[in-house]
Amino acid sequence: MKNKTHFLFLAFLLSAISLSAQKELDSILSASTSLLFDKPDQAIELANEVLEKSLDPATKVKALTFMSNAYLSKRQNSKSLKSVLRSLEFLDHIENPSTHIEVLNAIGMQHQQLRMYDKAKDYLDRALVLTNRLEPTDKPSSLLAYNYIIRGFIYREQMNCDIAQNYFDRALHQLKNLEASPATTANLSTVYYNKGNCFLQTTQIDSARTSFEKSIGYAKKVNAPSLLAFAKKGLSEVYTAQGNYQISLQHLYEADSIASEVGDLVLNRGIYINMANNFLALGNKDQYEFYDNRYQKTHQELLAQERLLIDESLQNSRMEIISERDEKLKKLHLILLIILLTGSILLLFLIIKTVKRRKQFLLAKKEINSII
Amino acid sequence: MKHRLFLLFLLWGSFAFSQQIAIKELLQEAESHYWDNPEHSIRIAEYILNQQEKSESSARANLILGKSYFVQSKIYEAIRATLKTKDLTRKIGNPTLQIDVDLFNLELLRQLSLTTISDELKIEIDVLKNELPHSRYVENQLLLIDAEAALDRGELSNSEAYFGAINSDADSFDSIQNYRKTLGQARLKFKQGAYEKSQEILSHVPSEAPKYFQVLKLNLLAQIDFNNNEYTAAVAKWTQAKDIAKTLPNDALANQSLHGLIESYLIQEDSKRYLNYKQESNLLSSNLTTSRVQAVNFTYNYYEELEQQSALRRIALTKSNIYWISGGLIILILVVLGLNYYYQLRRREYTVFKKLIAPQPTTIKKVVSDKTLVSEETEKQLLEGLERFETSTDFTRSDMSISFLAARLNTNNKYLSDVIKRHKAKNFNGYINQLRVNYIIEKLKTEPVYLNYKISYLAEESGFSSHSSFATVFKSVTGISPTKFLDLLKKEGDHEK
């Protein structure tokens, strides 16, 4: 759930990134955002190409951020982090503080994904300090909102919901400053969804309901089925907590039918476990077992997917190291071959010459012996 | 003084020895408690790690640390300690310890779902186990790990096959393995829907089993009660399990109990407890996910780094091979070049030598130019005089000069010089030097006794004022030094004999 919403959030954010970069190369990246999620390998190749061709540090930074996101969607977290950290070296050549903040925010987000919270906060703090230098034309609100949302995620994951709420509220304040756009609306839905979960965690049931309802409203406005299904699932938990199992089930059925278009296992798993719980509470053991089974199945499927992803990612990374090594070894072996070949030819030539010399010497010696 | 030193040494030695024994006992203590009281084992392990660095004991302590964290479901800390031990153990080279570390490492990798790496490790273990006397224990442990992993993945028939293959009769099958097998089989039966069979298997887990297994047993029994609609009994067992799990503390097991409790309170419509436990469970889930994500990232980076290191080593090895081979080739080439030069030098010497010792006229005759200062008759007379002079030994006189010879031949210096220049192609000094060198070479060739004389005597004999001027002139006339010439003559003469 968290990851998927992050990706969505990221996609919107990326499309909103506004760097004064080389126009042509820049637009290649902008046009290829969909590659990030569907064909991350192609996206990485593209980013590498742009990185090599571009002379403008701002475009390089954008290419690296793009690459980092592609690695993130491949779950190659360490590579993702490395790419975005690489962009730090180009920052010195960029004056625009908003680029600095974007990069620092992105690094903060990477660390949050890796659950390295202290480092994440460190980078987010550095980004925040720079916001004082922003001009109103730099759209400080969108940068601040992003910073606050990541902070909110961190505290929510650490179950410090009070602090998380505080940051989500600040993020909302900034988002509402922005002009209405699909990206902003989607972000509003995401933030309200997370707020709802936090309210549930702190048993503020009514506030949770309001938040989820707002999340639903924004999701409908931007026509994002995934966000809508997540929000509905969240709302169902409110009704379960209040003992309104039938209403809860209604929302879950709706969420389930929307989710079937989305095909997100995390979403499905959440819906099935909630359905199972409601049927359990209603004493409907058959339906409970039916949805509990579906939950278990989806859970296993999700684990298997995760397993495959991580395992494949590590395998790919190791294979890359091995193929890089083999390429270097190939070159070295070629050098060795050349050395051996030229060396042996030279040696053979010299040996033949020396044998001749020796023969001449022995001949001279023989002649002398015949004289004396 | 000596006594004192000896005593001190003895004292220190016995202290060190007793310390070793103490550490061994501590390790045993920690080893036997981690399933029951991981906190205690962690304290002991940390104490030993503070005492010793990079020894076998510290490797063992790290392994116990890893296993204790595992019992506490702190998988990030567990994998960190284990991979640290792995590096250390590789250097120590104790196969028994190494296989212990590898087996536990395998278990963690299976938990983290790093399939390819764990499969590679399993192959390593299979190779290594054959060197050990207790390979049966290792085989059983491998089956146990595979059976549990298959069970977690929901592959029930695979899991059953692995459990079935375990040889529990083996002497090396210890009580912990027995608990794990029993609980695993009970879980398997539960998942297959055979609740009674599962309960019966669980009755074999005694109440004195370590806490970790007690919690597993209680959680499973509670789940069976729950599925049999005996909610009160289930709640009692889950509550007990949760409380014991918290003493370990093991968040994963406690979370299992909490999940059961959440469902039970949902049925009993106790929404307050439902929400409280849900909050608690969310917190535990979050911690567990964090630990897991960190563990996966740490392991990922470790194995990536390992691959990188081994790649760098291969490249460095190839490079050093290139250096060695190039170095060897260069040395060989230099040797052959040296030999070549040696033979060239020797051949040149022999050619010169051959010329010198070949029979040749003692007189020097060469006509260079027809232009003459002297009349034909005088020239003829002078040439006859020179011929006589050449066959004599007068040129060996040290006071020989052009005026002397001119007086002897009744002519003047100018005429003599002209005739020598035109007929001998040399100036007077060159002419004399040539005669002297020819003379001494002839002597050396014909009278072996000369071979024993010193160079200075030969110089004097041939009319040179000093050893060095003789050597210089000899070298410039023949191409080799007089010493060399003597050597060759002696050597070749010996050969002949």
What descriptors fit this protein?
heterodimer, A: 372 residues, mainly alpha, disordered N terminus, B: 497 residues, Serine Threonine Protein Phosphatase 5, Tetratricopeptide repeat, Arc Repressor Mutant, subunit A, 21 helices
Please give a quick description of this structure.
The complex is a heterodimer of chains A (372) and B (497). Chain A is mostly helical and 372 residues long. Chain A is built from 17 helices and no strands.
Tell me what the structure shows.
The complex is a heterodimer of chains A (372) and B (497). Chain A has one domain (2-267): Tetratricopeptide repeat domain (Serine Threonine Protein Phosphatase 5, Tetratricopeptide repeat, Alpha Horseshoe). Chain A has helices at 2-16, 23-31, 33-38, 40-53, 57-73, 77-86, 88-91, 97-113, 117-130, 140-157, 161-177, 182-201, 205-222, 225-242, 245-262, 265-281, 285-371. In chain A, helix 15 runs antiparallel to helix 16 (265-281). With 372 residues, chain A is mainly alpha-helical. Chain A is elongated, with a radius of gyration of 31 Å. Helices cover 86% and strands 0% of the residues of chain A. With 497 residues, chain B is an all-alpha fold. In chain B, 79% of the residues lie in helices and 0% in strands. In chain B, helix 2 (38-51) runs antiparallel to helix 3 (56-71), helix 7 packs parallel to helix 9 and helix 16 (402-408) packs across helix 17. The two termini of chain B are 75 Å apart. The chains are: A mainly alpha (372), B mainly alpha (497).
